[in-house]
Amino acid sequence: MTSLIVTFALGMFSWTFLEYVIHRWLGHDPRYRGNPFGVEHVRHHAEGNYFAPTPKKAALAALVAVLIGGPAAWLAGAHGAAAIGGLLVMYGTYEVLHRREHTHAGIGGYGRWARRHHFHHHFVDPKTNHGVTTPLWDLIFRTYRTPGVIPVPAKLCMRWLLDDAGAVRAEHAARYQLRGARS
Ligand SMILES: [Zn+2]
Ligand SMILES: [Zn+2]
Question: Which ligand is nearest to the CA of 41?
Answer without folding.
Answer: 2
